[in-house]
């Protein structure tokens, strides 16, 4: 996870690289055999997503009418710092629809799309820079771009995808809408489980080595007591100050936190030591990452995250 200033510096340093990728990608796509259909003559819509997280949501809506390919499928890769290849760029520019997170999370997608002379339909979850604005219903994300941890945001994103697929394939609009309704129903079940955590444990204090799951923790009514300076340092890839680290260790020793949440994709020797100290103190450690493991759907993965959080809260040391 990286701060907005870090991402701006990366964009400045990589502008030339992105331009080169786009040029190469255009050469690759111009050599392809017409259109975005595959060599077998499939009439499926070709969807390219930045990550497998949104790829799973797109597949749930599109079903057999779509072929979904995420650019990043490795659950250990960090989209913030991912460097796209010419092959990635070719896929993006040759897609019928591109779906990405936005908010600076997967900036390689808009960088590839901009200034290439092609108009590729897109859907993104975060409409404003760095995740700062809310949805149409006024929900604020407070700068946290990891909106797949907000079930209402995922429901809204599902609606966007459904609408765009209907525009691209009008004859199958009703099928897409039925699939979306099924998906929304499953999201509702997950939201019910989050609401029950809030009813049982609302106000419980938690620590987090990174704020990736803050939106879920907020919906569950939990109070993150992690010092902001510690989180900001981890976000930017820097070591927290000695004072902030000491404060976190004191909080671990105090036993005030019911759970320690950690993101394996921002793991460092320091965060691993804190996790070890929490386990030694009897504080459950719950993994909340930012990529979907291979073979798992979004609903399965999020359901497992919610279950692990509930189990940890139900079984204090």
UniProtKB/TrEMBL annotation:
The main location class comes to other
A single GO molecular-function term is: metal ion binding
Keyword Transport in the entry? The reply is yes
Q: Where in the cell is it found?
A: Cell envelope
Residue spans crossing the bilayer: none
Recorded GO cellular component terms are: cell envelope
Do you know which InterPro entries this protein is assigned to? AdhesinB, Bact_metal-bind_prot9, Lipoprotein_PsaA-like, ZnuA-like
Q: Which top-rank group of organisms is this from?
A: Bacteria
- Please give a single GO biological process term from the UniProt record: metal ion transport
* Database matches in Pfam families: ZnuA (PF01297)
Q: Give the record's keywords alphabetically.
A: Metal-binding, Signal, Transport
Signal sequence segment: 1-27
Q: What PANTHER family does this protein's entry cite?
A: HIGH-AFFINITY ZINC UPTAKE SYSTEM PROTEIN ZNUA-RELATED, METAL-BINDING PROTEIN HI_0362-RELATED
Concerning its family, UniProt says: Belongs to the bacterial solute-binding protein 9 family.
- Name it: Zinc/manganese transport system substrate-binding protein
Originating species? Halosaccharopolyspora lacisalsi
